[in-house]
Amino acid sequence: MKPFSKSFWRALPAIFSRHLREDKTSTHDHAAETPATLCALPERSDFESLAPGVGYFGALEYTNGPFPINGWLLAPQQLKTFGLYIDDALVQVVPAQKTPPDFGVINAKGVPSLFAFLLSEESADLPSFARIQVVGCTAEKPVRQLATFFRPAMNSSVPTPPAELMERVTGNRDGHLVKAAGLRCCCEFLDTLSRYQDLGTIRRVLDWGCGCGRVTVHLKDFFSRYPDAEVYGCDIDREAIGWCQQNIDAARFSTIEPFPPTNWPANTFDAVVSCSVFTHLARDVQHAWLNEMNRITVPGGILLASVVSKFPVSRVPPGGIYDDVVDVRLEGIAPDGYYRSTHQTRDYTLREWSAHFDVLEFIENGIESAQDLVVMRKRV
User: Fold this and answer.
1) I need a surface site. Which of 7, 68, 99, 184 has the fewest CB within 10 A?
2) Domain termination site, one of 122, 152, 182
3) What is the pTM assigned to this prediction?
4) Tens digits of per-residue pLDDT, 286-333?
């Protein structure tokens, strides 16, 4: 079977949300279960080497009473147990839920298992940017993990972009899903970045290709705890940048041209993050922008960028990259033929991109379950 399209992966949160609305029994009564009878997990999270799984969280919204944390996770085999960690502390261990019929469509990629935790009212008073991590286990050991941040009252505290701007970037017009996906992406970027840099030492971070700021808005709120940190966003979409400038304070937004250079001086940013930008660039344009990212990043600085290595064709093209298909979603914004639907193998990425940066990691499914995350460092 061919890999699923980007539109399929974008549709999965809506499938899951519909299941939660229709299934009133989706929060498991686990009062009689104990961690010892389900799975042996450490009291503190220590899963840096555990592969990220394909999966999604349900709506993490809390008002009062018990707080449900639901979702699903894909693994090579049926998961038996899930552990919930909040800010790295083990909170609950529960058995996996029965998988609904809707999810049979993704069995070709693995076996989907549902998780359902229920925090007591006393435990549900979580701070903003509390890290929620779910670890899925077989009978023997942990095999996959899924993580995101929690933001109380996100629907009211985070501005919602116009539906047209959200759809242009994500293919989705649901404000809550778009903001939740941006928050998860922010968590995945910062989890990775923190392994290579002390986040408190970062002075400038750039969200390159920020669109309507779905990740930038969370980055700037997270980094507000560090008084010297500055968060920047840029994009070729003037309408999206205009909206960000009017609605997202305490971050600096700029319109850039489709081709480098930018106006920033050399060695400006300690870290650059980029979600689903290189996935829309032809190989020569990728190289041009990698050169520019190298120029504006400080020596030793980190570039985190997503790619898609799942190919929409049965055979991988010679060379390891497929960039022939034009994506028309930015018609009228990007030059004709500029915006592509690009897929590239891990080997291609390591070979070609190492000309610009030291490639430290290639994390499959490292961004929003749909894209791989490439971790790079500028040579000193």
Assistant:
1) 7
2) 152
3) 0.90
4) 999 999 999 999 999 999 999 999 876 667 788 999 999 999 999 999
